[in-house]
Design a protein that fits this description.
The complex is a heterotrimer. By secondary structure, chain A is mainly alpha-helical. Helices cover 75% and strands 0% of the residues of chain A. Chain A has six helices and no strands. The chains are: A mainly alpha, B mainly alpha, C mainly alpha.
Chain lengths: 196, 89, 244
């Protein structure tokens, strides 16, 4: 370890210049860009086919969408508090991460419920363009949530081990916040945006 | 619990939850008459929440300035792009 | 293998892109034909563009040759990371070579459809749809290639990494971007059809960028391997000189 390298002290009090590691941010920005394009598709469908958009959207449960939003926001809070606890803040890191995992798992459950309702009502992915976009967007997001749960579990196990890896914990936390961030745009666009 | 809410993360969470409830209200009760204006407001609030998540949860406020700038640029493009599409199309 | 041969193999990437897209253009398929064309419309397209489509099919099939070289070159460099216990090396090689079929099968479906353009339109349409669903939708070999490379890059224990770490993340993201592709089989129109924004235009552009990414990665890796070999030779020579 040279003098110019900052020591990788898990208990360092300062946030990193590049949380996780620089390469991770390529992934995060690229993923945000991918979703930005998909969000554009949703707005396009609303403008192109408002007569399809409005009734299809009405078939979705906006309440369940809100519940999912609150679950992810709370999960992100717990993960952020966990990272803070690692640096000497209040609370137990592993319990915070476990809380995040619980929120993520609950999100998964609610999403499956939602899809089940929609399919039972006859709204499948090939019903119309709105539902194609709905299933595609929420599906890709769900894949991200599932991977995020794996990352959180890895973080949970790591902080309970003697060799805490700061990069994994902070980087993994940023990935989880990404999952939250993407949903925060998805929710109003798909569930709330009124179409004339 | 209350100590947690008094941290920057905790306060951000309260703001985020509040904005989510506000958006829910606008979206379900159509608090605004002009549909396009309501959509623009929802998008603006959403991007605001995105920025808050990046700045506080991802700790970009303390990160390398290039990262922060990049994120700000992303938020700006996302907001103008989506809202622009609303009015142009 | 000397660096010279590897440098030559490096051009298989750009050549694949050129030959493959040459084929697509020859057939008149950029932008791709709509996924909701009727059988009669499809038969009409084959009748009026029969030579273009035949040439296109041939070029697309020929592009498969370069894919084999490309995949082998990447695994050659991945093996530098994994040494004598390769796993991701095999994963990438297997996936990359199966990827040749993703390109060759459709091209012969198109060729068969164009072989006798006067036949029953339903048969022509079936062959055409088989070709396009496979060409645009069969993303799993490429996804596996990306995941294997991404995992290998991120698990590189060497001091001087074979590939920079950000390229590992980049490959994992490319895998995500290819993700929507297979879902075209549910749709005939819209953003998720085989000519749709999310399932064609995004993955197609990412596909091109992916070749650029690997070209950059492999060029750096080939040169760093050549430099390492030169250093090793130099220290061998020094050793011999000292021994007298």
């Amino acid at each position: 370890m040279t003098l110019t390298q900052t020591p990788r002290d898990a208990r360092s009090n300062r946030p990193a210049a590049f949380p996780g590691e620089p390469g991770l941010w390529f992934f995060l920005f690229a993923d945000m860009t991918l979703f930005a394009c998909l969000f554009g598709v949703v707005v396009y469908i609303r403008d192109d086919q408002p007569e399809v958009f409005a009734p299809s959207q009405a078939a979705l449960s906006q309440t369940l969408g809100l519940v999912n939003t609150l679950l992810l926001l709370t999960g992100s809070l717990l993960v952020a508090l966990g990272v803070n606890a690692l640096r000497g803040g209040p609370g137990r890191v592993d319990r915070m991460f476990a809380g995040g995992i619980a929120c993520g798992a609950a999100f998964l459950g609610v999403k499956v419920l939602e899809w089940g309702h929609a399919i039972a009502d006859g709204h499948t992915a090939s019903t119309n363009d709105f539902f194609s976009a709905y299933y595609m967007l929420t599906g890709i997001h769900l894949a991200h949530v599932t991977i995020g749960l794996g990352v959180l579990i890895a973080m949970y196990r790591n902080v309970r081990s003697p060799n805490v890896r700061r990069n994994l914990v902070e980087g993994g936390a940023c990935y989880w916040h990404l999952v939250d961030l993407l949903w925060v745009v998805l929710f109003p666009l798909v569930y709330l945006m009124p179409a004339g | 619990m209350t100590t947690a809410l008094r941290t920057p993360a905790g306060i951000s969470w309260l703001v985020l939850v509040g904005l989510s409830l506000l958006s829910y209200w606008v979206g379900t009760d159509h608090g605004l008459d002009n549909k396009d204006a309501a959509c623009a407001a929802l998008i603006a609030v959403a991007v605001g929440k995105v920025y808050l998540i990046g700045a506080e949860f991802m700790e970009l406020r303390h990160a390398d300035v290039r990262l922060r700038r990049g994120f700000q640029v992303y938020c700006a493009i996302l907001a103008t792009g989506l809202i622009g599409m609303l009015f142009v199309l | 293998m000397t660096a010279g041969i590897q440098r030559a193999c490096l051009w298989s990437g750009p050549l694949f892109v050129a030959v493959f897209f040459g084929g697509i253009l020859a057939a008149g398929w950029l932008p791709p034909p709509a996924a909701d064309m009727s059988a009669d419309e499809i038969a009409q397209m084959y009748r009026s563009h029969v030579d273009g489509i035949r040439t296109g099919a041939l070029l697309i099939a020929m592009a498969g040759f370069f894919q084999g070289v490309w995949a082998a070159l990447m695994s050659r460099q991945l093996k530098r990371i994994e040494g004598d216990r390769p796993l991701f090396t095999y994963m990438q090689l297997g996936a990359g070579c199966v990827g040749i079929l993703v390109v060759v099968f459709p091209s012969f479906a198109f060729a068969a459809a164009a072989y006798d353009p006067g036949r029953d339109p339903e048969i022509t349409a079936a062959l055409h749809q088989f070709g396009f669903l496979c060409l645009v939708g069969m993303g799993f070999p490429a996804i596996l290639q990306c995941v294997a490379v991404g995992m290998a890059v991120l698990s590189d224990p060497r001091e001087n990494k074979v590939f920079p770490r950000w390229t590992g993340y980049a490959n994992l993201w490319v895998a995500f971007a290819f993700g929507p592709g297979p879902f075209i089989l549910y749709f005939h129109t819209g953003a998720v059809a085989w000519n749709g924004f999310a399932t064609f235009w995004i993955p197609a552009n990412v596909f091109g960028a992916w070749f650029g990414l690997w070209f950059y990665m492999l060029r750096r890796a080939i040169e760093s391997e050549a430099a390492e070999d030169a250093m090793a030779e130099l220290s061998d020579v020094e050793l011999q000189v000292r021994r007298g």
